[in-house]
Write a structure and sequence with these properties.
Layout: H1 2-22, E1 25-31, H2 50-58, E2 60-66, H3 72-81, H4 109-115, E3 119-125, E4 152-156, E5 168-169, E6 172-173, E7 183-184, H5 199-203, E8 205-207, E9 214-216, E10 225-226, H6 238-252, E11 258-263, H7 284-306, E12 313-319, H8 334-337, H9 355-358, E13 362-365, E14 374-381, H10 385-392, H11 409-413, E15 424-428, E16 435-439, E17 442-447, E18 460-465, H12 481-497
Parallel strand pairs: 1-11, 1-12, 2-14, 3-4, 3-11
Antiparallel strand pairs: 2-13, 4-5, 5-6, 7-10, 8-9, 12-13, 15-16, 16-17, 17-18
Helix pairs in contact: 6-7
The structure holds calcium ion (CA).
Amino acid sequence: MKALCQTVVAFFLAAQGVFAAERPNLIFILTDDVGYGDVGCYGATHVKTPNIDRLAKEGTKFTDAHATASVCTPTRYAFMTGRYAWRQPGTGIAAGNAPALIKPGTVTVPSLLKQAGYATGLVGKWHLGLGEGPTDFNGEIKPGPLELGFDYAFFIPATGDRVPCVFVENHRVFGYDPADPIQVSYGKKIGDEPTGKDPEVKLKIRPGPGHFDTVVNGVSRIGFMTGGKAARWVDEDIADTLTTRAVQFIESHQKGPFFLYLATHDIHEPMVPHPRFRGTSDCGWRGDVIHQLDWTVGQVLATLDRLKLTGNTLVIFTSDNGGAIKNTYDDGTNPLHARQKPNAGLRDFKGSLYEGGHRIPFIARWPEHIPAGRVSTQLIAHVDVLATVAALTGQKLPAEAGPDSFNVLPAWLGLKTDTPARDHLVLQNNGQRPLALRQGQWVLIETGAQSRNGTKAAPGYELYNLADDPAELHNVAEAQPERIKRMSEELERLRTAGRSRP
Ligand code: CA
């Protein structure tokens, strides 16, 4: 049996050249704050996601895939670089005027694909810092995505709930008016004007907890941006704008090969659905923006169908961290949001080291090579995309690149191998500590300075057996001192080793 598996692996390695010659298009759809249970094919019943479900029907759905962190910036850093973000201080949730967190010259997913002859585009949320910091949005804004391998970029600098509330196209604010210069603050308030243009959303302004002291739908932007009035986005139009840009990028590069990194704003706060989606779910605006997200995915798939690109385009659908429910809405829909359980019974939410913080939907569709309608239980993570894409395009990663990125192409393709794609994975929340170590069915979680959604505990460890206890209800640390010792020592070794890639 072992010999047979090795034969399969050998065949696979030989086949990599074939894949490189095929040069499939790649669309990586990284959604925001969509939890493990937030789409129909992962069990959601209060929202309808026929387009995302179509991807699962025509591709492979992974049940043990993880964002490498439980919040935005470190997950995106790990995806782009193949390196755990906790290895670099300052990669926690970035301010909207933070400096570029990835140094130009770093080997990234887009730079690797560009080297293989791909046209590379970013449409959507960036949140990895820009320029030297604090970013000046009134001139040429760099370094940024274009200095890291993208040929084209149309993006939200940070997130929808952070200033500046403008899009950047390549190196400039889109729609910039030099007569109305932009100023943003991540300290003192510099005004009291709302940042968006949405009349309905303004009605929902109320004081409350947030990053600062005033919020829109739980979101703190008011008073921290002045100028750039003509360039400001309309929250309810963001999905339409990004979808249009994504479709245009595919159309412009249909001769291929192309790589589109579509980082949706949905379903991050402030969760303002376009009016045509409002009330379409029975769980408030949170459900409605899931419908809006599904529409975006549908537009992308319809474009591939129309241009006859479906067969040789690898589409990945995933999320940057687990889901969350926030009761900060003034639109009367708070009680409805919780009808849709974001993480399908996994413990905790976005911002946590428990499974609800980082286990996410991950679907891969490539009709010519990935099995349809299959479910994979392989352990994989976003940090693996770099090494996997290198294998897909027949490139050897330089020794210093992607130090934590594993080639999981056999798992994506549903090939049988005699070892799992990954034998371990390190997970983080927002900073250098605490971390969690996954090994097989076991997960060791450092406690102490716990996640923002987690409970505080004395420094130590929790241990869960995910095979018996996927909801992490039973901490078995006390009964397993030997395992705690082995795993905690291994975590320390990984922490100091600087790399984990074989
Ligand atoms: Ca997120």
